Amino acid sequence: MKLEFDIASGDFSKAGRASSRIKKMLKQLQVDPKVIKRIVVAIYEAEVNVVAHSVGGKMLAEIDGTGITVIVQDNGPGIEDIEKAMQEGYSTASKAVRNMGFGAGMGLPNINRNTDEFTIESELGVGTVLTFRNNF
Ligand SMILES: Nc1ncnc2c1ncn2[C@@H]1O[C@H](COP(=O)(O)OP(=O)(O)OP(=O)(O)O)[C@@H](O)[C@H]1O
Ligand SMILES: [Mg+2]
Asked: InterPro entries per the record (predicted)?
């Protein structure tokens, strides 16, 4: 089963759309609630990052018999130093974004903690691709 979502830049009211749809879907499939909780956290953080830090992108989720794989890709600006971005507390979020309660620098570490597999690829001026998977 494949699901696809567009993620618009700047629209925080719509962040959470993909994660809640996928949550519903996994509940219907009677996936272990602990697994659902973890993947929903990861998806939400990834959605917010596209909204907050990129010009926009999309998410693809594929559910198979043994787990869920999620690919989140955006069209830039890319991440300059992935190692730094992965550190807890590192954030380049704008003041406006911080005032909305984001920008603690915990999103990527949270994705890492809540997934079984996680990779980030990024190219400056091109974009960022996050790929993560949780097994049921
Ligand atoms: N899709 C992206 N495109 C460009 N830069 C990104 C992207 N995702 C993350 N980053 C960069 O990595 C940093 C760390 O991301 P992370 O999600 O850990 O923290 P945050 O988004 O700043 O704060 P929080 O997630 O706690 O609200 C961001 O501040 C930003 O500089
Ligand atoms: Mg974040």
From this structure: HATPase_C_sf, HATPase_dom
Which ligand neighbours the alpha carbon of 113 most closely? 1
Task: List all residues whose CB is within 6 A of at least one atom of ligand 1.
Answer: 45, 49-50, 52-54, 74, 77, 79, 85, 90-93, 102-109, 128
User: Of 11-15, 33-37, 66-70, which gets the smallest average pLDDT?
Assistant: 11-15
SS3 59: strand
Confidence band (pLDDT; 50, 70, 90) for 112?
A: very high
Is 80:60 a contact under the CB 8 Å cutoff? no
DSSP string over 74-134? E-S---S-HHHHTSTT-----HHHHHTT--SS-HHHHHHHT-SEEEEEEETTTEEEEEEEE
Mean pLDDT of 106-124: 98
**Number of CB atoms found within 10 A of residue 27's CB:** 11
Tokens at residue 13, please? 């009211």
Which atom of ligand 1 is nearest the CA belonging to 80? 5
CATH number of the 2-135 domain: 3.30.565.10
